[in-house]
Design a protein that fits this description.
Elements: H1 10-20, E1 58-60, E2 70-78, E3 89-94, H2 109-114, E4 118-122, E5 128-134, E6 148-153, E7 160-161, E8 166-167, H3 175-179, E9 189-190, E10 193-195, E11 198-202, E12 205-206
Parallel strand pairs: 1-5, 2-11, 2-12, 8-9
Antiparallel strand pairs: 2-5, 3-4, 3-6, 6-7, 10-11
Length: about 220
């Protein structure tokens, strides 16, 4: 299968992912009728709690006065055939600068559980997304690397989770943890760069890549 031509650097990124993960070209399909895409997950339904009726391709998760180092992450979401995927909802949430999912006042249910640093994007015609936030801290007194949780909702499919965004320079991201990554949607390990007083990272996502029951 030959991927459609994409503009650089997006096309180069997609081809790099395809070479790194040959299963990119083979969506996992379920033999059991009605099986959930992604196999289901605890808390994925939070994508619908507070979901804005109007969504843009970029958003801000952390207010300007939120304590912590600023972080900007962007990328392109692709289909399995290599074409950019417009109209895909990406929901992200993460801990604050102390490592807690601190809730907004009056928050209940999963909205409280996911904390105040959460938000939604919907990819534009070029499949692009971007969010501005702070760099999350790891959970206190635990060995879990700092991370951002992503959940996606494609048209006509149930919501499912992707590999967390994690950071290559995190000392908690050990070789053992790297080896155990599921690579759902592609690798979530970001190499951040420091620019204009903030951290900048990029992650392109491939829908269906390493996703159980994808169809």
């Amino acid at each position: 299968m030959i991927a459609p031509r994409l503009s650089s650097p997006s096309r180069r990124t997609f081809l790099r992912l395809a070479l790194a993960f040959p299963s990119l070209w083979l969506a996992r399909r379920s033999r059991a009728a009605g099986a959930l895409v992604g196999g289901g997950c605890d808390g994925c339904e939070a994508i619908h709690e507070g979901l804005p009726a109007a969504r843009k391709w970029e958003t801000t998760l952390a207010a300007a006065d939120e304590p912590g180092e600023r972080l900007e992450i962007s990328g392109v979401i692709f289909r399995l055939d290599g074409a950019p995927a417009p109209g895909v909802i990406l929901y992200c949430y993460h801990t604050d600068a102390q490592g807690y999912y601190s809730p907004a006042p009056g928050a209940t249910g999963l909205t409280r559980r996911h904390g105040r640093l959460r938000g939604w994007m919907e990819t534009n015609a070029r499949g692009e997304y971007r969010f501005d936030t702070i760099r999350p801290a790891p959970y206190p007194n635990r060995d879990v690397p700092a991370h951002v949780h992503p959940i996606v909702k494609e048209p006509g499919k149930n919501e499912y989770y992707l590999d967390d965004y994690v950071f290559d320079d995190d000392p908690l991201l050990t070789p053992e943890k790297r080896a155990k990554a599921e690579n759902r949607g592609g690798s979530g390990i970001l190499r951040l760069q420091r620019r204009d007083g903030r951290w900048i990272g990029r992650r392109d996502i491939v829908l269906g890549m390493m996703i159980p029951n994808y169809r």
